[in-house]
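Quick one, T. Sequence first:
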Amino acid sequence: MKKDKIKTQRLIIRNLKKEDCYDWLEIFNSDLVGKYLIKYEKLEDIKKLIDKKIEKYKNLKGSSFSVLEKDNKKVIGSVEIIFNEENQTAEISYVFNDKYWNKGYATECALALIDYAFNDLNAKKVIADCRADNASSNHILISKLKMQLIQTKEVFVKNLNKNIVFNYYEKTSNSF
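Structure tokens:
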């Protein structure tokens, strides 16, 4: 079953809204985040990105969420889950405002998405990837989420116009 909101101890993970654009700009305009993802410097570009994501998930079994701190309702991150019914696989991804790194939010959020994938979407497998040079995300995926590294592969990233090495991970429902 598709959810509009997931709550954890410290977070609210809810459907993306257009008004999240200002906090998203703060996230995606960071040099630290930009080291691993595409950097956005203009509010207009963030608004287009959000519109694109909202439209994309209208017809998909999955969601693009904003992550808010429960205490102050500030958007501190973005997560996505895409469910492929054919092979019963859910793909998760996340990005957080660098001011909120090293506080356990990515782990807390990803664990909630994994739980949602297995218990609500009935996924048999959850997959994720991250850049091989992103030590923190690799640590979360292996040590905190107990995902298995299944492949390391160099991929051409069109938006960045260069090859980047990615690690690919999976977790099966019977290891959850």
